Amino acid sequence: MSQTNEAGPSNLVEVTSPEHFTEIMQQDLTRVSLLNFYAPWAEPCRQMNEVVREIAIKYPQVLCLIIEAESLPDVSESFDIEAVPSFVLLRGHTLLSRISGANASALSAAVATHVAPTRVNGTGSVSKTSAAPRAAADTYDASTRNGTAATHADDQDEEDVVPETEEQIFARCKKLMEQRKVMLFMKGDPDTPKCGFSQKTVNLFRQEKVEFGHYDILKDENVRQGLKKLNEWPTFPQIIVNGELIGGLDILKESIESGEFQEMLQG
Prior knowledge:
- 37% of the residues lie in helices and 22% in strands.
- It has helices at residues 18-26, 43-58, 73-78, 104-114, 143-146, 166-177, 196-207, 221-231, 249-258, 260-266; strands at residues 12-14, 32-38, 63-68, 83-84, 86-91, 94-100, 138-141, 148-149, 182-186, 188-189, 192-193, 213-216, 238-241, 244-247.
- β13 and β14 form a beta hairpin.
- The radius of gyration is 19 Å and the shape is globular.
């Protein structure tokens, strides 16, 4: 199923690979992006694809990315997509909203809330975000009515197995973050990563000869969700230096290229 054609708006783009996704997202960290996770066999997705096309036409300043969830599991898993259709609204790395299920009005309202009218000179007051993103401002879940489970999402771990308070979870997360000078919270382990972004992070660390500790967030749902909330960062891997989050793979690459990462290691 093709999501773009010659007559389609230029800001409606079908993602073809994890590398393609990363490249597009790094082009403008001030731009609002709408990620549309779909499956070609799901009727609700076909309906919502048209809604996204209409949004792309109405808001030319919004980058609308069409992502086939099962064909690009690395991207889907990095945003914890467990059903299709699902939508993630971002500004740079800042998570603005998540909508799960075929709810056109909720999606349109979320975009309208976070997107300012187009300006002639294209300027605005939004600052670039190299810092960790804030948590989602709002979330809508319609998956119980018309969302379709994605077959690749097999990590719906049991929640609240351990009766920990949020304070206890945060304390445990902080302790883990401070175990080594550099900590990598990833899916899987360095020898058997379960996510392409985690694999690339490990490869980059090894290439730069960085000594690091690691933790498999798939083994503990409390830690997984706790890190997202504590660090205000919605995806994995998460890279920690001196007990503080620096970001994910793309920010790691940027900081290595600029020399900032080496400075942090020496600090």
